[in-house]
Amino acid sequence: MTICQLPPSVALITRRSLLIPATTMGSQITASSLPQLLEHDTCVKLAGIDVDGILRGKLVSKKKFLSIAEAGFGFCSVIFGWDMHDQTYLKELKVSNAENGYRDILAIPDLSTFRRVPWEDNVPFFLVNFFDPETKKPIAPCSRGLLKTQLDKVHAKGYGAMAGAEYEFYTFRNPNSDSASPAGFLLQNPPHQLPSLTEGMFGYSLNRPVHNKDWYYDVYNTCARFSCDIEGWHTESGPGVYEAALEFGEVADMADRASLFKYVVKSVGINHGITPCFMAKPKQGLPGNSGHMHISIVDGDGKNLLARDTTDPDAKWNDIAALSDLGRHFLAGLLEGLPDIMPMLAPTVNSYKRLVENFWAPVTVSWGLEHRAASIRLISPPTSKPGATRFEVRTPGADSNPHFVLAAILGCGWRGVEKKLEIPCPPLALGQDTGGAGDVGERLAKSLKEATARFMRKDSIAREIFGDDFVDHFGGTRENEVRLFDEAVTDWEMKRYIETV
């Protein structure tokens, strides 16, 4: 294996004796071209994405796949009726429940998502979309369908949206060399006692990756071969913490690649006895894992529509002097909607352990030019080129579903454009932090329970943007998560109270 693979535009993906240029993958594939494309294959892997951003799928024979490639096939709806540990929700939800028998929903492969899984003998791989079998409309909690609905609003104006994703994650070493299975050694070893891949705080280190260079380069190269290319890849500040910035691209494709990036990292880790952890806050007293998203709007020719043609000398704040009117409305929509869509950005109980003061994580409705303490960092001239003007939404954690995050960003931002909203608060001054005395911006929810209540309330912006069916379903899944946590007895409680009370 070479240290750095060629970019996807010129890379070759090998399947036994078959060489397929990466440029033939994606939009050029049609149902009629599938028999030739899969000529040397015997099976196909299919996967959809549940509300937690987890890939759920199966392996099917080539014969089966060719018969359902256009019309789709039945997929048990229970993946929307149970949680991430396959326990059915305590409160049954509309899409999938005992009353409807956890009926099948319609799964249709998206041929444009074609890839080959390099760590599984290059088996063909496709993502699927989920539809109601009767109405043929996307089901409310379908991750890819929800993002498409928001993107369609932008497309209706002849515009497009571009995005970039950055993920931080901790890595832990398997202390039992006899078993590389994460499930096995997590059962044998308390998770909080697993040794980190490297120790100490050493962000952007050139030396630390050398200690595990086979894994380090395997992740990078496998991402390239699986068409979820990494743009930047380095150590972050924390024991065994790494950060990957994925290649910038079209929003829907970016969301897919972000989901598949986690799949790659976890799969490659198995072969190296390494378990990656995308929890928002794995370790008390250390920084958490962020999942920052960058977003921009472009016209049909690819021109950045957030950039102003000429600097506005009369701008209300210098921070937005180079930001277009459309960009200002988009920013206003993000700021106004942020408190109402928090479960989509911070979906777990653990998410809110990251969103605390003094840990480089945003905790208020806030923004600023090149301000890394704000929830929304504006990147524009004079610190960048006009064509690179964008918003970095810094609230999401690495535990979030990238399709929901980008749908929330687009939905809120575009609502601001349609309503011509005005930016509701001044920018943070350089050096001004968002923590402490509540002197800047509205404090975002401190818990999943609080965030979910606001998300689900009758007049929430989330309901306005996404509709009742989605809010009731996803909100119901978050209520389930909160209830399970409320009933749990934690190690902290045992340690604190076992002897003293």
Automatic annotation (TrEMBL):
Task: Name the Gene Ontology biological process terms.
Answer: biogenic amine metabolic process; glutamine biosynthetic process
What InterPro entries does this protein's entry cite? Gln_synt_N_sf (IPR036651), Gln_synth/guanido_kin_cat_dom (IPR014746), Gln_synth_cat_dom (IPR008146)
- Keyword terms, alphabetized: ATP-binding, Ligase, Nucleotide-binding
Q: Look up keyword Cell membrane and say if it applies.
A: no
Domain GS catalytic intervals: 143-501
- What SMART domains is this protein classified in? Gln-synt_C
This protein's source sits in the domain of life called Eukaryota
Which protein family is it in? Belongs to the glutamine synthetase family.
Q: What is this protein called?
A: Glutamine synthetase
Source species of the chain: Metarhizium brunneum
Q: Which gene encodes it?
A: glnA2
